[in-house]
Amino acid sequence: MSLYPLLRPLAFALDAETAHRATIALLKLRTGTAFPPEPPSTPSLETKVAGLTFPNPVGLAAGFDKDAEVPEQMLSLGFGFVEVGTITPQPQAGNPRPRLFRLVQDTAVINRMGFNNKGQADARRRLDRRARWRGVIGVNVGANKDSADRIADYVAGVRVMSPVADYMTINISSPNTPGLRGLQDEGALDELLAAVEEGRTDKPIFLKVAPDLNDGDHERIVKAAIDHKIDAVIVGNTTVTRPLLKSRYASEQGGLSGEPLKTLALDALRRFRRASGGGIPLIGVGGISNADDAWERIRAGASLVQLYTAMVYEGPGIAKRIARGLADRLEREGFTNIAEAVG
Ligand SMILES: Cc1cc2nc3c(=O)[nH]c(=O)nc-3n(C[C@H](O)[C@H](O)[C@H](O)COP(=O)(O)O)c2cc1C
């Protein structure tokens, strides 16, 4: 039985960022033999994407473990893969607090953290010390807010972090670094992806995009990604739009995640699926909170899924619950492996 229903009122009594720090501190206590080193394997859920073997398709999205403090702990809780970051070349403090808000009535979060992180060198040292794990760890990189050359920051991120990553993610979709999303625009995206391609190592590279795109953007981004040998597209980040919300924090600035993002994120995924014709793997993120949501994303073309906000509301047992639900669904619908269900 999950303890989270008992712990949640305690966590929710704290402000959101304090609760997050306390959670990371608790997770850090789970080391060594105190937890199984690997998630239990279910053959029907094991899947290969971009040459990597994922024990199950349910991943932890970037932003929870920004400094790579607890990736093994999160794998041990049943995630098939964990994406750490966003990590920038130099450490940076991020935006002033408060910058993280729980919209409880909407089962949502708004954040304007602004890439607070301890920088590449710190994360690299920590990931270097880790033993080989089962499960996949991706490293999500970004640019420093005051960087004079943002493209060089991404190239440095790939160069420095690739040796300790199973895959790299180029994050150009955070709404909380002014101008960053402009890297999704036509000329800028080509320039960025050409530079990353030139500096890449043997590790797969994923591109994380925003759900807020205009008609035609999906086709253009897919073409640029394929032209520059990107291995998968993550669809996507938080939204700057505001669907109807009930919470008093509804008009806080930042990116919205969780339940109200679901329809938008699914729609964006469908557009990318249509634009790509299956020519590049897609990873579905945004408002996924149960096995039905994950299944819908997979049927819509996602080879893998990720989540963050639903874990805030439902606790860390969510990864195992969704994985189990997906395995049941596969059996019910007569598939032998999750890859066959990808739409
Ligand atoms: C507090 C918070 C911080 C986040 N930080 C990052 C980040 O540093 N890099 C990134 O690529 N995405 C970040 N995200 C976005 C998530 O990875 C994910 O794309 C988004 O929240 C949608 O998924 P969800 O509805 O399951 O949360 C953050 C999300 C939240 C809620």
Report what the structure shows:
The protein has helices at 4-13, 16-29, 71-76, 120-128, 150-161, 186-199, 217-227, 262-276, 291-299, 309-314, 318-332, and strands at residues 47-49, 52-54, 58-60, 81-87, 100-103, 108-111, 136-141, 167-171, 205-209, 232-235, 255-258, 282-285, 302-307. The protein has eleven helices and 13 strands. It is 35% helix and 17% strand. It has 343 residues and is α/β, with parallel strands linked by helices. Residues 61-63, 66, 85-86, 100, 109, 111, 113, 140, 171, 174, 208, 237-238, 257-258, 261, 285-288, 307-310 line the site of flavin mononucleotide.
Pattern of helices and strands? HHEEEHEEEHEHEHEHEEHEHEHH
Helix content: 25-40%
| Share of residues in strands | 15-25%
Low-confidence stretches: none
The biggest sheet amounts to: 8 strands, parallel, barrel
Mean model confidence by pLDDT: 93
Radius of gyration: 18 Å
Number of helices: 11
Strand and helix map with partners:
Blueprint: H1 4-13, H2 16-29, E1 47-49, E2 52-54, E3 58-60, H3 71-76, E4 81-87, E5 100-103, E6 108-111, H4 120-128, E7 136-141, H5 150-161, E8 167-171, H6 186-199, E9 205-209, H7 217-227, E10 232-235, E11 255-258, H8 262-276, E12 282-285, H9 291-299, E13 302-307, H10 309-314, H11 318-332
Parallel strand pairs: 3-4, 3-13, 4-7, 7-8, 8-9, 9-10, 10-12, 12-13
Antiparallel strand pairs: 1-2, 5-6, 6-11
The structure holds flavin mononucleotide.
